[in-house]
Design goal:
This protein has 220 residues and is α+β, with helices and mostly antiparallel strands. It has 4 helices and 4 strands, in the order H-E-E-E-E-H-H-H. The protein starts with a helix and ends with a helix. Mean pLDDT is 85; it is low at 1-22.
């Protein structure tokens, strides 16, 4: 009885060691060898690791795949591909938000025409005010120039206040002209944007009509 009690733990211990050894040996590595061959071994040599390898069982099933290490050219190409994908995703998201905005703001193309006319009229009013201000400023310049010329004809010095006023008015003319140019560019940009919105909205309406027509067709 004593011998049996001693032998039984030893048998179990040896059985466990054999099981561990069998499990360890049931894992192999498959990797590309020279001249296009495939090597299956109990380990992967360091020189073969960059080419990638598979961890497989004895029956050939794959436990894990380690991808080959990319070259600098491959890495750059991959990064470029990711950049293109990100840019495409950002463009798609921008278009989605644009479509949502159009469908929320307008019911039809005529609504866009009305909004375009209102926006353009608003800019034209601002341009008209700027041009009116420019005309007044120029008239002040002409008047002050005439005053300065008259003083010079009479042999009198032009007061510094008058010279400063003329310089200030000329700067104001330049600034006002720049604002007018900016508003005119804005006018063209706004008009183009509304035309672009009209084209996109028309496309969205066509898509909706196609879906309605498809689902309205009797099913066979």
């Amino acid at each position: 009885m004593i011998a049996a009690r001693v032998l039984l733990p030893l048998v179990l211990c040896w059985s466990g060691l054999f099981a561990i050894q069998a499990n360890a040996q049931s894992i192999y590595y498959r990797y590309p060898g020279p001249n296009g061959t495939v090597v299956i071994d109990s380990s992967v040599p360091p020189s073969a690791v960059p080419r990638g390898y598979d961890i497989i069982r004895l029956d050939g099933t794959v436990v894990k795949t380690v991808a080959p290490r990319m070259s600098d050219e491959e890495r750059k190409a991959r990064e470029l591909e990711f950049g293109v994908e990100e840019a495409r995703a950002a463009a798609d998201e921008k278009t989605r938000k644009w479509d949502e905005s159009l469908l929320l703001r307008y019911s039809n193309v005529q609504d866009i025409d009305v909004a375009k006319k209102r926006a353009i009229n608003d800019i034209k009013v601002r341009i008209s005010i700027l041009k009116s201000n420019l005309s007044v400023i120029k008239q002040q310049v002409y008047s002050n120039q005439a005053e300065a010329a008259e003083l010079e004809r009479r042999g009198l010095a032009v007061p510094s206040e008058l010279s400063d006023t003329l310089a200030s008015l000329r700067r104001e003319i330049t600034t006002t002209e720049q604002h007018i140019t900016s508003r005119q560019e804005e006018l063209e940009e706004v008009a183009n944007n509304y035309e672009r919105d009209k084209r996109r909205f028309a496309d969205l309406q066509d898509q909706v009509d196609l879906r309605r027509h498809y689902y309205a067709k009797p099913k066979k």
